[in-house]
Structure formats: C-alpha cells, structure tokens
Amino acid sequence: MDWGYFKELLMGGVVKGSIYALIALGYTMVYGIIELINFAHGEIYMIGAFTALIAAGVLTVAGFPAWSILILASAAAVVWSASYGYTVEKIAYRPLRGAPRLSPLISALGMSIFLQNYVLLAQTSNFMPFKNLFPEEGFLENISEVLSATEVIIIFTSAVVMILLSLFIKYSTTGKAMRATAQDRNMAMLVGVNVDKVISATFIIGSSLAAVGAVLIASNMGQINFFIGFIVGLKAFTAAVLGGIGSIPGAMLGGLVLGCTESFGTGYVSSDYEDVFAFTLLVLILIFRPAGLLGKSDIQKV
Amino acid sequence: MLELVNVNTYYGNIHALKDVSIKVEQGEIITLIGANGAGKTTTLMSISGIVPPRSGEILFEGKPIQGMPPHEIVSMGLCQVPEGRRIFPHLTVSENLDMGAFLRKDASQVKQDLDYVYELFPRLSERRTQQGGTLSGGEQQMLAISRALMARPRLLLLDEPSLGLAPIIVKQIFQIIRKINEESRTTIFLVEQNANLALQVAQRGYVMETGKVTMTDTSDNLLANEEVKNAYLGMGE
Ligand SMILES: Nc1ncnc2c1ncn2[C@@H]1O[C@H](COP(=O)(O)OP(=O)(O)OP(=O)(O)O)[C@@H](O)[C@H]1O
Ligand SMILES: [Mg+2]
C-alpha cells in the first residue's frame, strides 16, 4: 500500500470535509430548532462567496494590503450572509410557523430558487474567477508536505470556528436557550425565552458559518457562479443527515466522513463518480441507521 | 393579584374555556379542581400566554396580559410549572436551573437562590451534572418546582404536581409548596386532580367542569360539600 498516496487522500478528505461540516452546521441547527430543512442555506453560502468576491475586488482596486482584504472581505461575507439568513427566516418561514410541515418546506424551496435566479440576473451565469484571498507565501507553505497553505488554513479555520461554536452552545446563555428551545419550545417560552430571537440567532449563526465556508472553498476552487450553492448545499445536507440531523457534533463528524468518502472514492475507484459516492453513502445510512451516526434514534424527528 | 374575567379559549373549533372568571388574591394558595379534560391545563396555558384566549380579560396586578408573549408574562413574575414537569431532558440539572433564571440579571442573588433550592431539595444538589431526562419522576418534579423558583415568581402556577408520584413524595412536595407560600410570600395557583390534598393546602378553591367554573368557595366548605365529595373526593366509591 502506498502510504503517501493514502495520506494525501486522507488530508484532501479532511479539507473537503471541514467545509462540508461548516455548512452542514447551518442545516442541522435550524432543523434542531424548527424542524425545517432550510433549502435556501446553499444559496446563503453562494451569496457569501459573491459578497467576498465583490468586496475583495473593490478593496483591491482601492489598494488595501492583502491581509486586510482577507479580513474585510470575510467580514463582509459573514455580515451579508447573516442578513440574508435572518431575512429569509423572517419573511419565508416565520409567517408559516404552526402551518402544516409541508408549507415551510415549499417556501424554503421557493426561497432557494428565488435567490439563485436573483444572483443569476445580477451576475450572469458565467463562472467568475475568485482570487485566493489567503497569502500563499510565508511560514504556512512548508508546514505540510501534502497540503497547500490554503488547505492548512481551511482545516485550521474550520477547527477554530467549530470549537468556538461548541463552547458557545455549551456555555453561553443564548447557547443554552437554543438547546432548551430545541428540546421543548413551549417550556422554553415558560421560562422566559423569546423564541423568535433564538430562532433568528440560529439563522444568523448558521449563515455566518456558511459564509466562512464560502470564503474558504472559493479561495481553494478559484471560481464561483450562481449555482455553486446547489451542489455544496446538497453535500452539506447529506453530511448533516449522515451525522444525525439536529446534532451539532453529528454535523461535524458527518462532514468529515463524507469528505473522506469522496476523497478515497475518487482516489481509489474513479474520479468520474465523485457525487455518486456521497449519495450512495447517504442511502446506506438511511437504510441501516436512519437517525444518522450521532442522532437520537428518534425516527419521528428525522 | 390575578383576575380572569369571562375568558374564552379555543383549540381550533373546540371551545375549551367558556366564560371562565377566577380571582387570586395576593399571598394566598388557591386551587382549581376538576375531572380530566375539564380545562384546567388550558386555564393555566391561557394565563401564561401559550394558548392565548380569544376573548375576555386576564389582569395581573391590574395590567391586562392577555395577548402578551409568554416571555413578557414571565418577566412580570408570573411563572408556571406545567403538567408533566417538562424538564429539558438533555440539559443537566444545573443547566435546567439556569434556564429558570434566564431573565434575571442579578447574578449574586441568583447564586443565593440556587443555594436555597439545593437546600430545599438536597437530592438535586447531588445530581447537578446529571441530565434532566434521567431523573426519576419525583426528582423531576422537584427540579421543575426549583426551576420555577429560580425566576423568583410572585405568582406561581402549578399544574398537577402530584401526578404519578408516590404518596410519600407527594406529601413532601406539598410541604414544600406550603413552605414557598409562607416563607417567600409567593402566591400559588394550584391545579390538581387530587382534590382532597389540594383543598387541604389551599384556602379557597374553584371547581371546573367541561370548560366552565361551576363552583367556588372556601376549601373547608368545598370539602364539606356533598356534590364535591361525591364527584372529586372519592367518597362512597
Ligand atoms: N392542543 C390541543 N388541541 C386540541 N384540543 C385540546 C388541546 N389541549 C387540550 N384540548 C382539549 O381541551 C379540553 C381541556 O383540556 P385540558 O388539558 O385543559 O384539561 P385538564 O382539565 O387539564 O385535564 P387533565 O386533568 O386530564 O390534565 C379537552 O377536551 C382537551 O381534549
Ligand atoms: Mg391538565
């Protein structure tokens, strides 16, 4: 067995998987609280990528130094995606709370299609080059034989963001209120939680994570268009289901497992079937462990 | 302190509360008794704003609260221990208590109250890091009451605290209810199916049948009342 090649595939899987995990968190947190699959989440990610692209373009023309472009463009992506996430919940899902479950699902699909087409009209359907926002030179270059500097940054940033999120959910007052709301919404109200605010916070956090994911992937892939949210969204959703939808550690694990499956599948079998591996894994999980890897075996919720 | 005036509450087309009027005075324990499905839980949920009434008025300390969101009602000092306890199953005992103090900003007082409830229920203190869902029924009831106390309520609504508990635990819970009422002057609105017990701790009672209040009197008079005896006190069974 060629260990070098194995290591390369493994690290490639981790890079991909970290990003799936970041985006999967948005699906899983929203599902955990309002039991809705937010189909527009992939589009929130795509909007984050475009925001970073535009912001970076403007800042470059204005002559800002590279590191400040990275920070400002990422911040712009986070703020813009978060505002979209917040607004989508407010106009498309909140009015349908208490309606039959299918209604908000249809509304979510509608939102997804609307946002795609809105960006299509504003930006055309062509792929646009996305300049890598991360400095490729410097100490990061030699940190790993297998990974590029950008890949190291992807793994590192995702890990830090996910650790911070876990601490926030575990220890902050809002984090506790989120868990309480997910477990028993009416009871949360009875202890004084403003559930509307908790739901908004969930969308804002999920969307911000998607924007971070967007800056990371776009920098690695080098091009974006209005449709990138669809396939990445589908993959991240697969990761969320794989880990157990509603479970935060599940989304993280699901992302990594999916990323590695794809990486090994393409590396050892055939690169023509990248997406087939992901969805085969999903089908297998749904058959043998419908609640997902870390999900509660409460099938009704899934 | 609390007054319901001709409250009507519906679930879709089901008319669950029909012109319900109830008055609770500062400092007292009152009880609402009635058979299954009479509308007792609905009454409490209407007061707390979870199932807002379609018509009528609910006044808390003179202010109308019907139609207010539940969290604002809680912030006025009106808390509920709902039927079935509703412990957050995957939060620890201490996190459940933190949630009780969710709206409070006075950290040092919260700490004092935490010590107080742990003293009241030493069993909870031993189980601080255990998940709420893994507690026994009696422990969950203790936790549910403690969680509500963490909000420092002025009016506490209790929905069937005796449900499903062994007689000895029930006795203990009722002693605590009395103690809360006497020590911190917390007004208590107690809903019970165990009418005998409820009328022993409460000063006054209301009887509810199919969504209507059919009788109200002092506990002593209700305990002596033939109709109440036959229907709710299990006499002659
Ligand atoms: N969520 C709901 N949807 C529809 N009907 C409901 C709902 N909750 C209660 N009801 C109906 O309203 C009526 C009153 O119910 P409620 O729960 O208030 O009774 P209760 O007096 O608390 O009974 P119990 O002693 O069994 O707890 C019942 O007929 C019940 O079927
Ligand atoms: Mg009831």
TrEMBL record, chain A:
- Which Gene Ontology MF annotations are present? L-isoleucine transmembrane transporter activity; L-leucine transmembrane transporter activity; L-phenylalanine transmembrane transporter activity; L-valine transmembrane transporter activity
| Membrane topology of the entry | Multi-pass membrane protein
In the UniProt record, which is one GO cellular component term? plasma membrane
Is the Ion transport keyword given for this protein? no
What keywords tag this UniProt record? Amino-acid transport, Cell inner membrane, Cell membrane, Membrane, Transmembrane, Transmembrane helix, Transport
Endoplasmic reticulum found in the keyword field: no
Q: Where are the transmembrane segments?
A: 20-37, 44-61, 67-86, 106-126, 146-169, 276-295
User: Which family, according to the similarity comment?
Assistant: Belongs to the binding-protein-dependent transport system permease family. LivHM subfamily.
Q: What is this protein called?
A: Amino acid/amide ABC transporter membrane protein 1, HAAT family (TC 3.A.1.4.-)
- Source organism per UniProt: Desulfatibacillum alkenivorans DSM 16219
Q: What is the lineage of its organism?
A: Bacteria, Pseudomonadati, Thermodesulfobacteriota, Desulfobacteria, Desulfobacterales
UniProtKB/TrEMBL annotation, chain B:
Secreted as a keyword of this entry, yes or no, is: no
Q: Which SMART domains match?
A: AAA (SM00382)
Domain ABC transporter, residue spans: 2-235
Q: Which Gene3D superfamilies match?
A: P-loop containing nucleotide triphosphate hydrolases (3.40.50.300)
What's one Pfam family the UniProt record gives for this protein? ABC_tran
List GO BP terms, alphabetically.
L-amino acid transport
The record's SUPFAM superfamilies line, in alphabetical order, gives: P-loop containing nucleoside triphosphate hydrolases
Keywords attached to this entry: Amino-acid transport, ATP-binding, Nucleotide-binding, Transport
Recorded GO molecular functions are: ATP binding; ATP hydrolysis activity; branched-chain amino acid transmembrane transporter activity
Instruction: Extract the CDD domains matched here.
Output: ABC_TM1139_LivF_branched
- Entry's PANTHER family? HIGH-AFFINITY BRANCHED-CHAIN AMINO ACID TRANSPORT ATP-BINDING PROTEIN LIVF
Which family would the database say this protein is a member of?
Belongs to the ABC transporter superfamily.
Its protein name is Amino acid/amide ABC transporter ATP-binding protein 2, HAAT family
Lineage of the organism: Bacteria, Pseudomonadati, Thermodesulfobacteriota, Desulfobacteria, Desulfobacterales
